[in-house]
Give the backbone structure.
Amino acid sequence: MPRTNPLLLPPRHYLNNGFGVRSWLLTRDHKRIALLYLVGVTLFFFIGGAFAVMIRLELATPAGELVTDDTYNKLFTLHGVMMVFFFLIPAIPAVLGNFLIPLMIGAKDLAFPKLNLASWYIYMIGATFTLYAVVTGGLDTGWTFYTPFSSAYSTTQVVPAAVGIFITGFSSILTGLNFIVTIHRMRAPGLTWFRLPLFVWSHYAASLIMVLGTPVVAITILMVAAERIFGFGLFDPNRGGDPVLFQHLFWFYSHPAVYIMILPAMGVISELVAAFCRKQVFGYTFVAFASLGIAVLGFLVWGHHMFVAGQSVYAALIFSILSFLVAIPSAIKVFNWTATMYKGSIAWETPMLYAIGFIGLFTIGGLTGLFLAAVGLDVHVTDTYFIVAHFHYIMVGGTIMGYLGGLHYWWPKISGRTYNELLAKVSAAIIFFGFNLTFFPQFIVGYLGMPRRYHAYPPEFQLLNVLSSAGASILGVGYLIPMIYLAWSLRYGRIVGSNPWGAVGLEWTTTSPPPTENFAETPVVTWDAYEYPTEVHGHVA
Amino acid sequence: MWPGTPLFPDTASTMAHRVDALYFFLIGLTAFFSLLIAGLIIYYAIKFRRRAPDSVGARLSGGLVLEITWTVIPLGIVLVIFTWGASVFFAMARPPADTLNIYVVGKQWMWKFQHLNGAREINELHVPIGQPVKLIMTSEDVIHDLFFPAFRVKADVIPGRYTEIWFEATRPGTYHLFCAEYCGTRHSGMIGQVVVLEPSEFQTWLSSGQAEGSLASAGGKLFRDLACNTCHRSDAQGRGPVLDGLFGKTVTLQSGDRIAVDEAYIRESIVNPNEKLTAGFQPIMPAYQGQVTEEQLLELIEYVRALGTGTSLPSLRPDAGGPRPGENTPSRGGNVPR
Amino acid sequence: MLPEAAEHHPALAHHFDNLAQQKEAATLGMWVFLVTEVLFFGGLFAAYSIYRGWYPDAFAAASHTLDITFGTVNTAVLITSSLTMALAVHSAQTGERRLLMLFLVATMILGAVFLGIKGVEYAHKFTEHHVPGATFHFEEEALSRHAQVFFSLYFVMTGLHALHMIIGLGIMLWMLWWAWRGTITSEYYSPVEISGLYWHFVDIVWIFLFPLLYLIGRHG
């Protein structure tokens, strides 16, 4: 199609199917609900990010001069709480998963649309409780709530925050439930399991974790709240309880939770690599099973957070070997993505930049996980900045880059318009550079011995901290720029057709934006995922 | 501008070298695979860049041999790392037999160190070179963690339990010690230093200026003041078990289980005696929970350890025997609340 | 491309192709939800198992202070309510509206009886000072510390179970209303069926709670 022919938005689509607040707040449409989540996760990301800015400002100098001890403790706690529970866990599934899963499987909606809307309300109510805790005194227990500090010693708003997290957990559980039933029961005719896009496989695996793991942390947090309110003694050694039991129950969820955070991002990367190489993902079946493998093995490794917490030597060794095993499926995925690029037709568009950034940074982050699985080495680096660097490489270098890559890739489908490509590429580069400057020095200062959750530290650690804080300011700028050009594009972006990237996938066969019912007629699928024809027509560069 | 910015920690213990060796191996491995993947990606992205807007990639979907290869090789590598890490960990978890024991009590927000001869330190720990040192640790309140970066060793310090770490220092000097488990307001202030001395200097330091007598003798005094000796007699006439020579042995409990008489069992038997009752005795011992501090428990443990071993207890100073000005006299019925 | 489904049963939601797909989705959804409930209670059962293994004597002594008569009666009540629920589901499947309503009401009455007895038990525990916290006092001093752990678990576990029962009663009321309105027919009865699944699950949780809490060390 000649580039000068101006396109128009389709006359009827999900965004103009009803106007007004009620049509959004009472919608059953999975696409609108995805955008409701987008507003929520973006807001909470920036709140959590603001706390991070304060943390890095304080850590630029060795003495704790900017804020008091107690304030700093609240800053890192709430940074963790906002980011983990209100951004990293919901973002990709509830925004991209909600929007795309029905489209990718040829369905009109998820299995339970009203439950989907309820999940969003539950999420916002949980967030309200937590924000209430923030503004009425904050929380200083760390996002990990270790007892007996959280159950008996902290004087901050533990109960409201715990209630907020408890409520939000149900949003995650119900989303996972919705996805599982949808993927089982609502695939279009001909769409067998092994023809599904890998994005769907990843979300299926993540949903298994959501429904099995989240209830355990829910009941654990409930027990901490009960201990504070009623004086029960489940985790208090003075009353016969065991504080280490809390850690087992907490990490039984919170380790698999990190796979909830990364599996959907890996699903995005599979889609991006396939689309921007115009090639089937190499080793599709292995990648699909690797997702399930990560989900299963992920439930068996929680003790690696507790190597120095007083477990027996034999328990530690079992958790160690299982932790090594869970690294293997992730490695398989990295190799398969790289192999997909071999003899691909590779385009350097923004989503692909994010995908490549993900693969590099996730590889480094994942390999540093091997340092931690080796018990003898973990003893030295646990509870230091080495750990902080490790998980930020995975969650920021991994998940957030996957999220941004996916947001950019599907933005034309969601909005019907595209964004400024130059600004987008520049932002991606700023983010990549800022990220590495922020977190790489933390590996070094961690091995040196700087513990986590310290706001004052010995002066010889200052140089590395200054580098990290400088990186954080750059990273912050990098995150702000996309907010601006994406918002701008909603009104002024160039309109695109149904398949601007020339990609293969059911979502690209319907209009941009799609109609409320997704497809004019239910598709019948007779092809494999990523089965590219010998040439592609209609690509608008 | 930033003098003395190190990029690598001091190496000051026998374990430190082993930990560092594994660390460097993993750095090499990480660098190798990261560069390999990054290199391939960049190479492919350039070599196979899209040349025409409508071109697609080759139809290549997979290869079983390749998949198996890049599954099995990483599996082999991680098994090597596991074994290496496990071996280092075993050495860390099994202190040698002849350790110099020092007790540690952590509390918000300070570290209290108790040498056996009664010397006490706060936030500073003196140890000798070339002698394995074992720290037996507990907390008075929340979970803390004692961390010596130069020795590459740490362990959580938990209320209601004893945990241990051991190290053998190899270089004289002063090194950091940190609390490494978040514990509240002044977590970042719960720091100090470990001072490693030549053995003769350490002995000099140890025997200087300590007036209160050894832990064991203080424990003996407590044992009498709390009237433990009325039931725990050296002959078998008392209502409680004979404690002489008991430390380190195994006893049979009411439930039929056998248990080793170690620091943890002694502590539990004082604080909550009737949960693990020795077979053949009545549950009449009162619970001393809340009536003795963690430090007093350590003194009693050292006293019981010394009982009946034939070791003469380090004698009290000549003017000992009664309370000195400012010294707490523990009495039955309560002392420092927990 | 397939044509859209020709039938349009009033209960068919627009995003499903037919009632059979809708029913399968609803049933699978309820089973997945029940799995999450197993994990939810599972954390408590795990804590219980660990503490009971450590403090067998204290747990046995504390368990003996629970009223075994009430517990047994409640178990019988709940099992009977599962029977009436199963009969309700059967009546829905055969389109017998009056019987369906009758059995739903019977289930609700039995559920209410269970909760009433539970309330009486809680009141007893309160007057005996067995509620953990500042007022806790256990007769056998030596075991008091760990008996408090037992009672903490007792209240959280049975309290959570009771909460699930109350929600179950609400669901029964909803089904009763639908039955009265004629929404439930022999063609469309899956809401009653999946409500039945939920109710049976709540029953099964009690079947585990009863021996673990009431029957420790009671022989013969």
